[in-house]
TrEMBL record:
Residues 73-85 have a biased composition (Acidic residues). It comes from Cladonia borealis. Its main location: nucleus. This is PRP1 splicing factor N-terminal domain-containing protein. Residues 12-170 form the PRP1 splicing factor N-terminal domain. It comes from the Eukaryota. Residues 39-50, 102-114 have a biased composition (Basic and acidic residues).
Length: 936
């Protein structure tokens, strides 16, 4: 034992690894010096474990000391196996070459399918990426083309780029905004500044103020001035509301800005030297000098520099700059023209000579040189030299011909001009006019024939030929225009129908040539229009457009053509006769109505219009009777013809004849209208008992005719039989529950007899039956107002405006009767925003201005109301009342004439006067004056 070496001193066995039996492995740390040694391999570990097991007499363990499990059957394996897991299904058999081949085949198929899917997937991803990049491009992609174009910029161009400076004027705008910034201050500060320079001898009270207008510093706010300023602001807003929006001019909602005129005014704006800052001039001067240094032959730069110096007040520098421009850019006519403008007349002539010498083909230089001359002979001399240099310049030939006073000499020059410029239509037409002026219309016709051969696509030559034929009486204008249409269509130079209408209107504006105008419309209005199109509406639109432009002859020609195409159209005949009534003569209206009745013998309105027109002419009564007799032959059972005959006889005092006609009408055409006209006729004659019998008899045939119930109740009320009148109205409201006038009459009957409660009940029942009736709601409000119950009236008005916010009569009642005077303008502004095209509301606004003595504005609003609805008689009456106080006699008579021509039929006060049996038979003028006297 003593000779045995110490265990710790013994060398380690080969391939010994400390702790390997316990599963440890070798490792190295960062503190180890040198490279870390590699541990034993797996085979060495197995060999060592096997040797160790042999020494111990045990079975060799598995790797890392884990003993192998015995093959013991596990009965629970199949119970816990996942049925979807197919792993190991084929591992129990023998793996041969066929299985290997099958695996390789399956693997190839899988790889091929993966490649196919990969190609499709990559294509789809690439497409999606391209779409996304196209919809969301990057900034560098947006400017890629500009970056590529920078490759063509030379180094010299890069070096000559001018400094940008403050071209956006951002700094200047910032400073200007800072200077112009406005801060609102209290009224007390403004009042204190106002009174700061005044001497005040009163003693200021330090105690609390008891007046609501006093402020803490002892100053007093002037509420009168503040109220006046507020009224002024409201007036401006009201005017803006009347002129804003996209409405028409008659409604007061159209803008007055003319875009073309506005742009023209901008182009005419000139800057003065005092209005331009010195810094701006210096900055622009530096830029222009840089441009000139970059390109010494850039003509616009010299012109801009000259105008800049002129704007700055440096005339000498301006002339020097443009003189340098003429030296560096001798072929630019703009530089020579600017130099001529900047110099005086003498030097300008010298400059013009040099400019023409450098640019002999410049028409502008020749004409400007001509204008520098003061004598006509000198101008002609310059232009003749210009013609020698530029024989094809139409502008120079025109200037030369215009300077010649002798027509013969002018004709010779024009003949020479058309030889040089055969394609100039203006020169050919000028030569034809000169031939006519010199008394050679035949030669003028020859000239036009030559012009037509030289310019086969010009429509102006054909129109001139037709006009010449009309003036001389040699030829038919319509035949010429017909040939023109065929020729132009053959040359593919035919104008559109709208352009032909414009040419006809142009002829009308020049005066005369009515036959040519009519020929143009007759031959071209239907060109390009198919029969399937709504030609009737199209022709009506054309006529209305010409009327709106004031071209009445053109509109008359369009109407004539439309009537030839549609000779039996009652709509077109009515439109044409109305046009003649408004823009023609009484004789032309009667002639057209005769033709209309022959073309449409079954039209009742045309027969009645003809009878009315005949009544205004000579032997009016007899002519009107004959017309109605012809109408009876065509329409014997028509009620309107019978009633027109009754009105004619009653108007002439033939009461017996009128009564006989009514009797015959009741027998042959016993309509409800004939019956209530018979009742009205008897009431006008004072026969209330007969009228009542007619009303009772008529109600047996027509129990649901509201007018008959109203007439029956009115007759009872006029006789003082209130219970019978009430019963008649009640029966009428039950038979006609939607008749608004019946409820109004019954309510007013109850109110007149002091039974306001029943009046309210009647109106409530009527509103339930007709909830959208503004008249019933208005009457309910007026009942409360007349009863002195203003709070309830305001409540009803609020409900009415909530239900009917666009009713003009409700807004007018609210503005005029339920609002204080100071609130009328704001309410008017609010009302116009709600309903901007209501004539009753416009009249109310006019009355507001009238009360404030703003007469021009009041007259303007009255006229707008009349243009909106000329059939509203109350509007004419209010305007007449205004003119009686503030208008001229001429204006009053003109308004009366217009009212008579329009024959208004409606209006609350107007209808009450016009349908009053006691004053039946009054004309429009008498009714107008009567209504004016009743207005309050």
């Amino acid at each position: 034992m003593a000779g045995r070496k110490d265990f710790l001193s013994m060398p380690a066995p080969e391939n010994y690894v400390a702790g390997l039996g316990r599963g440890a492995t070798g490792f190295t740390t960062r503190s180890d010096l040198g490279p870390a040694r590699e541990g034993p391999s797996e085979d060495q570990i197995k060999e060592a474990l096997a040797k160790r097991a042999a020494q111990l007499g045990a079975a060799p363990p598995t790797a890392y000391g884990a003993p192998e499990k015995k093959d013991e059957p596990d009965e629970d394996d199949e119970r816990f196996q996942d049925p979807e897991n197919e792993t190991g299904l084929f591992s129990g058999g023998n793996f041969d070459a066929d299985d290997d081949a099958a695996d390789r085949i399956y693997q190839d198929v899988d790889e091929r399918m993966e490649k196919r899917r990969k190609a499709r997937r990559e294509a789809r991803e690439a497409q999606e990426r391209e779409e996304y990049e196209a919809n969301n491009p990057k900034i560098q992609q947006q400017f890629a083309d500009l970056k590529r174009s920078l490759a063509s910029v030379s180094e010299e161009d890069w070096a000559n780029l001018p400094e940008a400076g403050d071209l956006t004027r951002k700094n200047k705008r910032t400073k200007t905004n800072a200077r112009n910034r406005f801060y609102a201050v209290p009224d007390s500060v403004i009042a204190g500044a106002r009174d700061s320079t005044q001497m005040d001898t009163t003693v200021q009270d330090d105690g609390p103020s008891t007046n609501g207008s006093d402020v803490a510093d002892g100053t007093m706010t002037n509420f009168a001035d503040i109220g006046a300023a507020r009224d002024k602001v409201l007036q401006v807003r009201l005017d803006q509301a009347a002129q804003s929006g996209g409405g028409d001019s008659t409604s007061g909602t159209a803008t007055n800005i003319d875009p073309k005129g506005y742009l023209t005014s901008l182009s005419k704006t000139e800057l003065k030297a005092g209005e331009v800052e010195v810094g701006d001039v210096n900055r622009v001067r530096v830029l222009l000098e840089s441009v000139i240094r970059t390109n010494k032959h850039h003509a616009p730069a010299y012109v801009a520099m000259a105008r800049l110096e002129e704007l700055a007040g440096r005339v000498v520098a301006s002339r020097k700059a443009i003189a340098l421009g003429t030296e560096m850019c001798p072929n630019s006519e703009a530089v020579w023209l600017e130099s001529m403008r900047l110099n005086d007349n003498y030097n300008a002539k010298i400059i013009a000579a040099k400019g023409i010498q450098a640019n002999p083909q410049s028409t502008a230089l020749w004409i400007e040189a001509m204008r520098l001359e003061s004598l006509t002979s000198s101008k002609q001399r310059v232009l003749r030299r210009a013609v020698d240099a530029l024989p094809k310049s139409e502008k120079i030939w025109r200037e030369l011909i215009n300077l010649v006073e002798d027509p013969s000499e002018a004709k010779l020059l024009t003949a020479k001009a058309v030889e040089e410029i055969p394609l100039s239509v203006d020169l050919w037409l000028g030569l034809a006019r000169l031939e006519v002026m010199t008394g050679n219309p035949t030669d003028a016709q020859k000239v036009l024939n030559k012009a037509r051969l030289s310019n086969p696509t010009s429509f102006r030559i054909w129109i001139a030929a037709a006009r010449l034929a009309e003036e001389t009486g040699k030829g038919n204008p319509q035949q010429i225009i017909k040939r023109a249409v065929m020729s132009l269509a053959r040359e593919n130079a035919m104008l559109k129908r709208e352009e032909w209408i414009a040419e006809a209107e142009k002829l009308e504006g020049e005066g005369g040539a009515v036959l040519t105008l009519q020929a143009i419309i007759a031959e071209t209005l239907g060109f390009g229009v198919d029969e399937d199109d709504d030609r009737k509406t199209l022709f009506l639109d054309d006529s209305q457009a010409s009327i709106a432009r004031g071209r009445f002859e053109t509109a008359r020609a369009i109407n004539a053509y439309a009537l030839r195409v549609f000779p039996t159209s009652e709509k077109l005949w009515r439109f044409a006769t109305e046009f003649e009534r408004n823009h023609g003569t009484e004789e032309s209206e009667r002639q057209l109505l005769e033709k209309a009745c022959e073309a449409c013998p079954s039209s009742v309105s045309l027969w009645l219009s003809l009878a009315k027109a005949k009544r205004k002419g000579p032997d009016g009564i007899d002519e009107s009777r004959r017309v109605l007799g012809r109408a009876f032959n065509q329409l014997s059972a028509n009620e309107s013809i019978w009633l027109a005959a009754v009105e004619l006889e009653a108007g002439t005092g033939n009461i017996a004849e009128a009564r006989s006609l009514l009797q015959t009408a009741r027998e042959q055409a016993g309509t409800d209208r004939v019956w209530y006209k018979s009742v009205a006729f008897e009431r006008q004659q004072g026969n209330d008992s007969v009228a009542l019998d007619f009303a009772i008899e008529a109600l047996q045939f027509y129990p649901k005719q509201a007018k008959l119930h109203m007439q029956k109740g009115q007759i009872y009320a006029a006789q003082g039989k209130i219970p019978q009148a009430r019963e008649a109205y009640n029966v009428g409201t039950r038979a006609c529950p939607t008749s608004v006038p019946l409820f109004l009459l019954l309510s007013r009957l109850e109110e007149a007899n002091g039974v306001v409660v029943k009046a309210r009940s009647v109106l409530e029942r009527g509103i339930m039956n007709s909830p959208n009736s503004a008249e019933l709601r208005l009457e309910a409000i007026r009942v409360e107002r007349r009863a002195g119950n203003i709070p309830q009236a305001k409540v009803l008005m609020a409900k009415a405006l909530q239900a009917l916010p666009t009713s003009g009569i409700l807004w007018s009642e609210s503005i005029w009767h339920l609002e204080p005077r100071t609130q009328r303008k704001p309410r008017s502004l609010e009302a116009i925003k709600k309903c901007d095209n209501d004539p009753t509301l416009f009249v109310t606004v006019a009355r507001v201005f009238w009360g404030e003595r703003k007469l021009d504005k009041a007259a303007n609003w009255f006229e707008k109301a009349i243009l909106l609805d000329a059939d509203l008689g109350d509007t004419w009456a209010w305007y007449m009342k205004f003119l009686n106080q503030h208008g001229t006699e001429e204006k009053v008579q003109d308004t009366i004439a217009k009212a008579v021509s329009n024959e208004p039929k409606h209006g609350e006060v107007w209808q009450a006067v016009a349908k009053d049996p006691k004053i039946a038979g009054l004309g429009t003028e008498a009714i107008l004056k009567k209504v004016v006297s009743l207005l309050e």
